[in-house]
Amino acid sequence: MDNVFVSKHPLVQHKLAKLRSKDTEPKKFRELIREIAGLLAYEATLDLELSPQEVTTPLEKMSGFILKEKIGLVPILRAGLGMVEGVWDLMPSSEVWHIGLYRDEKTLKPVQYYNKLPVEPRVSVCLILDPMLATGGSATATIDVLKNWGVKRIKFVGIIGAPEGIKLVHDNHPDVPIHLAAIDRQLNDHGYILPGLGDAGDRQFGTG
Predict the structure, then answer these.
(1) What is the Cα–Cα distance from 78 to 94, expressed in whole angstroms?
(2) Backbone angles phi and psi of 114, in degrees to 5
(3) Is there a contact between 109 and 183 (Cβ–Cβ < 8 Å)?
(4) pLDDT class of 68 with cuts at 50, 70, 90
(5) Which of 3, 11, 130, 198 has the most CB atoms lying inside 10 A of its own CB?
(6) In terms of CATH architecture, what is 4-205?
(7) Rounded to an integer, what distance in angstroms lies between the CA atom of residue 202 and that of residue 78?
(8) Catalytic residue numbers, as ranges
(9) pLDDT of res. 206
């Protein structure tokens, strides 16, 4: 699929297998979400722009680089919260903005209930964080919000995607790269990914 990037990194695949297991307890599940998020963000940020900067080592001066672009992390509440720390560890200067969406269980459509974005964006690149790209409704709605906010570069970073969700995002926003650890088979009648890993929010917060 165009503009869809699935990680082949052995560490990602190893951790993903543990994440999927029904026997993985919430504490370990949260750790794995955080670790996979960091690895995926590493791959998703390969094209960030740099600015040269002079650095003084203990021995002499040299030329180095710093990030030129201001990064925003946008976890989709609530499951996306677990991915923030893993990405923040790599880019501690990133701003974090929350967008709250829940999926109507009857229509499977996203309903926005929280949005505290400033009037104008202070970042040039946004990484949307959500472990599961299922129907694609929440991701598409979040991209809509960010584009209307004025963000020019947006990337989606998830862990597992369904073909249906990937298609919806791509049909509406073909310019937005999608970074995943895996693409699974399909959605079931309730909008859950198969084989998936269950409800990522419930498994993180022990509410299943």
Answers:
(1) 19
(2) -150, 135
(3) no
(4) very high
(5) 130
(6) 3-Layer(aba) Sandwich (3.40)
(7) 9
(8) 103, 107, 199, 202
(9) 85
CB 157 within 8 A of CB 165: no
Q: Residue ranges of the domains in the chain?
A: 4-205
What's the pTM? 0.91
- pLDDT-derived band at 38 (thresholds 50, 70, 90) equals very high
pLDDT band at 99 (very low <50, low <70, confident <90, very high): confident
Q: Which of 72, 80, 101 is CA-nearest to residue 159?
A: 80
| CA-CA-CA-CA torsion sign (112, 117, 121, 123) | negative
Q: Estimate to the nearest angstrom the gap between the alpha carbon of 178 and the chain centroid.
A: 9
Q: Is the dihedral of CA 57, 85, 158, 6 positive or negative?
A: positive
Q: Are 125 and 72 in contact (CB under 8 A)?
A: yes
Could you give the CA distance from residue 88 to residue 86 in angstroms, rounded to a whole number?
Answer: 6
Residue type, 114: Y
